[in-house]
Amino acid sequence: MAGVGSSSYKGNDSILFCFHCKSKTPTFINGWQLRSGGLALLCQNCGIWVLRLKISISRKLQERLQALAINKRSVLISDLRGRASLWFRMATTVRSLKIKTSTCKRIVKELHSYEKEVEREAAKTADMKEKGADPYDLKQQENVLAESRMMIPDCRKRLEAALADLKGLLVLFLSLFCCHVLTTLTCLIICCLFSIKITIVAS
């Protein structure tokens, strides 16, 4: 991906109009020439990325993509070629990745909590045995310890299943989108990671 210019971009092109701040003569910085022939430019006035795509799409689809880009801070694929649903599939997959990652984190936290509980209850049981506690109380404490230990295998099984789901979804994401994203929109992926909004303009 070749850079258009690190300071500013000027040219006889209808790209010199920002739909977000409505500036007809904006200064675009950090421009990038996409391999597909399009341009990715950053408006200095409002900090919105503006894309000029070398594709043929309808005005209605252009407005829809622009609204999605502004409202959802999304990465749009310049090489659409009639496959506008690719953005929706990517957004859905990314959302699923976030959900499954959060699930794994929650189960790991839960597992650590159960392990600490087992250690605490085991120490309490050993202390009661040393002090010669009442047999009934000791039996109750041993039951509590056994119940705590039973939760760990179940938690580990759920964690293994959640990790398997996350791994499968990640492999699916890489196989579906990386061939499109990495070759044309590297700079926009970086923008998405930093939650920078994107505007789209069709040529």
TrEMBL record:
The keyword Ion transport does not apply. InterPro entries: TBCA, TBCA_sf. Residues 104-131 form a coiled coil. Gene3D superfamilies: 1.20.58.90. It comes from the Eukaryota. It is found in: Cytoplasm, Cytoskeleton. GO terms for molecular function: beta-tubulin binding. The chain crosses the membrane at residues 168-196. One of its GO terms (cellular component) is cytosol. Keywords: Chaperone, Coiled coil, Cytoplasm, Cytoskeleton, Membrane, Microtubule, Transmembrane, Transmembrane helix. GO terms for biological process: post-chaperonin tubulin folding pathway; tubulin complex assembly. Belongs to the TBCA family. This is Tubulin-specific chaperone A.
